[in-house]
Design a protein that fits this description.
The protein has no helices and 17 strands. By secondary structure, it is mostly beta strands. Strand 9 and strand 10 form a beta hairpin. The chain starts with 8 loop residues before the first strand and ends with a strand.
Protein backbone atom coordinates (compact mmCIF):
# COMPACT_ATOMS: atom_id res chain seq x y z
CA UNK A 1 0.00 0.00 0.00
CA UNK A 2 0.90 3.65 -0.42
CA UNK A 3 1.44 5.36 2.95
CA UNK A 4 0.35 9.00 3.11
CA UNK A 5 0.99 10.87 6.37
CA UNK A 6 -1.70 13.45 7.09
CA UNK A 7 -0.89 16.49 9.24
CA UNK A 8 -4.25 18.18 9.84
CA UNK A 9 -4.55 21.77 10.95
CA UNK A 10 -6.63 22.97 13.85
CA UNK A 11 -7.99 26.49 14.16
CA UNK A 12 -7.48 28.07 17.58
CA UNK A 13 -9.76 31.03 18.37
CA UNK A 14 -8.44 33.67 20.73
CA UNK A 15 -11.02 36.41 21.22
CA UNK A 16 -8.32 38.87 22.23
CA UNK A 17 -6.17 38.28 19.14
CA UNK A 18 -6.26 37.06 15.58
CA UNK A 19 -7.14 33.40 14.84
CA UNK A 20 -4.09 31.21 14.23
CA UNK A 21 -3.43 27.84 12.63
CA UNK A 22 -1.15 25.19 14.08
CA UNK A 23 -0.40 21.56 13.31
CA UNK A 24 -2.02 18.87 15.44
CA UNK A 25 -0.99 15.25 15.89
CA UNK A 26 -0.37 13.13 12.78
CA UNK A 27 -1.43 9.98 14.63
CA UNK A 28 -4.44 9.60 12.29
CA UNK A 29 -2.82 8.46 9.03
CA UNK A 30 -4.25 7.82 5.58
CA UNK A 31 -2.57 4.58 4.50
CA UNK A 32 -4.15 3.78 1.14
CA UNK A 33 -7.19 4.65 -0.97
CA UNK A 34 -8.92 3.96 -4.24
CA UNK A 35 -11.31 5.99 -6.39
CA UNK A 36 -13.46 3.02 -7.35
CA UNK A 37 -14.06 -0.66 -6.67
CA UNK A 38 -15.72 -2.98 -9.18
CA UNK A 39 -15.24 -6.66 -8.51
CA UNK A 40 -15.97 -9.54 -6.17
CA UNK A 41 -13.37 -9.13 -3.40
CA UNK A 42 -11.85 -6.02 -1.83
CA UNK A 43 -8.91 -7.10 0.34
CA UNK A 44 -6.84 -5.08 2.80
CA UNK A 45 -3.78 -7.15 3.73
CA UNK A 46 -0.58 -7.05 5.82
CA UNK A 47 -1.89 -4.47 8.31
CA UNK A 48 0.99 -3.03 10.32
CA UNK A 49 0.04 -3.62 13.96
CA UNK A 50 3.51 -2.61 15.12
CA UNK A 51 2.79 0.96 13.96
CA UNK A 52 -0.96 1.33 14.43
CA UNK A 53 -3.26 0.45 17.32
CA UNK A 54 -6.51 0.90 15.39
CA UNK A 55 -7.59 0.76 11.74
CA UNK A 56 -10.59 2.35 10.02
CA UNK A 57 -11.98 1.62 6.57
CA UNK A 58 -14.35 4.14 4.99
CA UNK A 59 -16.22 3.27 1.79
CA UNK A 60 -18.61 5.55 -0.10
CA UNK A 61 -21.22 4.91 -2.76
CA UNK A 62 -21.69 1.16 -2.31
CA UNK A 63 -24.24 -0.77 -4.40
CA UNK A 64 -24.62 -4.19 -5.99
CA UNK A 65 -26.83 -6.41 -8.16
CA UNK A 66 -30.59 -6.77 -7.72
CA UNK A 67 -31.67 -9.43 -5.26
CA UNK A 68 -31.08 -8.08 -1.77
CA UNK A 69 -27.47 -9.22 -1.34
CA UNK A 70 -25.59 -7.97 1.72
CA UNK A 71 -22.00 -6.84 2.26
CA UNK A 72 -19.99 -9.56 4.01
CA UNK A 73 -16.51 -9.93 5.50
CA UNK A 74 -13.96 -12.50 6.56
CA UNK A 75 -10.68 -11.92 8.41
CA UNK A 76 -7.26 -12.81 7.01
CA UNK A 77 -4.01 -14.03 8.59
CA UNK A 78 -0.42 -14.98 7.81
CA UNK A 79 -0.37 -18.75 7.29
CA UNK A 80 3.36 -19.61 7.24
CA UNK A 81 4.11 -16.78 4.83
CA UNK A 82 0.89 -17.01 2.78
CA UNK A 83 -2.01 -14.62 3.34
CA UNK A 84 -5.09 -16.78 4.01
CA UNK A 85 -8.77 -16.01 4.59
CA UNK A 86 -10.25 -17.54 7.73
CA UNK A 87 -13.38 -19.49 6.68
CA UNK A 88 -14.15 -21.36 9.89
CA UNK A 89 -17.54 -21.08 11.60
CA UNK A 90 -16.38 -18.72 14.36
CA UNK A 91 -18.03 -15.49 13.16
CA UNK A 92 -20.90 -13.72 14.94
CA UNK A 93 -22.63 -10.40 14.28
CA UNK A 94 -25.38 -8.21 15.74
CA UNK A 95 -26.61 -5.14 13.83
CA UNK A 96 -29.57 -2.81 14.30
CA UNK A 97 -30.95 0.48 13.03
CA UNK A 98 -33.88 2.35 11.47
CA UNK A 99 -35.29 2.86 8.00
CA UNK A 100 -37.88 5.21 6.49
CA UNK A 101 -39.72 4.81 3.18
CA UNK A 102 -42.18 6.84 1.12
CA UNK A 103 -45.12 5.57 3.16
CA UNK A 104 -43.16 4.02 6.04
CA UNK A 105 -42.44 5.84 9.28
CA UNK A 106 -39.53 5.40 11.64
CA UNK A 107 -39.18 1.61 11.49
CA UNK A 108 -36.59 -0.43 13.37
CA UNK A 109 -34.85 -3.58 12.25
CA UNK A 110 -32.25 -5.86 13.76
CA UNK A 111 -30.24 -8.81 12.47
CA UNK A 112 -27.96 -11.25 14.25
CA UNK A 113 -26.66 -14.77 14.14
CA UNK A 114 -24.73 -17.40 16.00
CA UNK A 115 -21.52 -18.88 14.66
CA UNK A 116 -21.20 -19.03 10.88
CA UNK A 117 -18.52 -18.76 8.16
CA UNK A 118 -18.87 -15.02 7.33
CA UNK A 119 -19.95 -11.70 8.83
CA UNK A 120 -22.90 -9.58 7.72
CA UNK A 121 -22.17 -5.83 7.58
CA UNK A 122 -25.53 -4.44 6.41
CA UNK A 123 -29.09 -5.51 5.61
CA UNK A 124 -28.59 -5.36 1.84
CA UNK A 125 -27.01 -3.26 -0.91
CA UNK A 126 -29.06 -1.18 -3.32
CA UNK A 127 -29.34 -2.29 -6.94
CA UNK A 128 -28.40 1.07 -8.51
CA UNK A 129 -25.71 3.78 -8.38
CA UNK A 130 -28.07 6.49 -7.05
CA UNK A 131 -29.44 4.87 -3.85
CA UNK A 132 -26.04 4.05 -2.40
CA UNK A 133 -24.67 3.41 1.09
CA UNK A 134 -21.53 4.46 2.98
CA UNK A 135 -19.81 2.45 5.71
CA UNK A 136 -17.21 3.05 8.42
CA UNK A 137 -15.46 -0.04 9.84
CA UNK A 138 -13.27 0.18 12.97
CA UNK A 139 -11.13 -2.58 14.47
CA UNK A 140 -8.21 -2.94 16.91
CA UNK A 141 -5.98 -5.51 18.63
CA UNK A 142 -6.38 -8.18 15.97
CA UNK A 143 -2.75 -9.18 16.44
CA UNK A 144 -3.49 -10.59 19.92
CA UNK A 145 -4.19 -14.26 20.65
CA UNK A 146 -5.59 -13.75 24.15
CA UNK A 147 -9.14 -12.64 23.25
CA UNK A 148 -11.84 -12.64 20.56
CA UNK A 149 -11.46 -10.12 17.70
CA UNK A 150 -14.06 -7.34 17.37
CA UNK A 151 -15.06 -5.06 14.53
CA UNK A 152 -17.48 -2.12 14.81
CA UNK A 153 -19.57 -0.92 11.86
CA UNK A 154 -21.66 2.14 10.95
CA UNK A 155 -23.73 2.13 7.75
CA UNK A 156 -25.87 4.99 6.44
CA UNK A 157 -27.57 5.96 3.19
CA UNK A 158 -30.26 4.31 1.10
CA UNK A 159 -31.55 0.89 0.17
CA UNK A 160 -33.44 0.29 -3.08
CA UNK A 161 -34.31 -3.02 -4.70
CA UNK A 162 -36.85 -3.51 -7.45
CA UNK A 163 -38.74 -0.28 -6.78
CA UNK A 164 -38.63 -0.23 -2.97
CA UNK A 165 -36.60 2.73 -1.69
CA UNK A 166 -35.61 3.41 1.94
CA UNK A 167 -33.42 5.87 3.81
CA UNK A 168 -31.57 3.96 6.51
CA UNK A 169 -28.81 3.73 9.08
CA UNK A 170 -27.48 0.92 11.24
CA UNK A 171 -24.59 0.09 13.49
CA UNK A 172 -23.36 -3.06 15.12
CA UNK A 173 -20.59 -5.40 16.13
CA UNK A 174 -18.93 -8.21 14.20
CA UNK A 175 -16.74 -10.76 15.91
CA UNK A 176 -14.45 -13.72 15.35
CA UNK A 177 -14.51 -16.04 18.33
CA UNK A 178 -11.29 -17.74 17.24
CA UNK A 179 -8.96 -16.21 19.82
CA UNK A 180 -5.98 -18.37 18.79
CA UNK A 181 -5.38 -16.63 15.43
CA UNK A 182 -3.70 -13.23 14.98
CA UNK A 183 -5.35 -11.46 12.03
CA UNK A 184 -3.67 -8.91 9.74
CA UNK A 185 -6.21 -8.38 6.97
CA UNK A 186 -9.85 -8.34 5.89
CA UNK A 187 -11.72 -9.52 2.80
CA UNK A 188 -14.91 -7.65 1.85
CA UNK A 189 -17.38 -9.24 -0.58
CA UNK A 190 -21.14 -9.66 -1.05
CA UNK A 191 -23.24 -12.60 0.05
CA UNK A 192 -23.70 -14.17 -3.39
CA UNK A 193 -20.01 -13.63 -4.28
CA UNK A 194 -20.83 -11.55 -7.38
CA UNK A 195 -19.60 -8.10 -8.46
CA UNK A 196 -20.32 -5.10 -6.24
CA UNK A 197 -19.28 -1.48 -6.42
CA UNK A 198 -17.92 1.35 -4.27
CA UNK A 199 -17.21 4.85 -5.56
CA UNK A 200 -14.26 5.25 -3.17
CA UNK A 201 -12.53 3.49 -0.28
CA UNK A 202 -9.87 4.59 2.20
CA UNK A 203 -7.84 2.78 4.87
CA UNK A 204 -6.71 4.81 7.89
CA UNK A 205 -4.39 3.88 10.75
CA UNK A 206 -4.41 5.39 14.25
CA UNK A 207 -1.18 5.24 16.23
Amino acid sequence: PVYVVCVPLLLYLNLAANPSWTAVSSDFVKISSGTTHSGTDLIFDNLDWSTYKTFKIHMEGMYGPRGGHYLAARFRYNNSGTQTTYTGSAYRYAIGGRHTGTSTGNTGETSGTGNQDKLRLNWALSDNAVDTQDIMITFMDWNQTSHFKQMYIEVYGNYANGGNDYTMFLDGICQSRDNSTAYNGINLFISNSSTWYAKSYTLYGIK
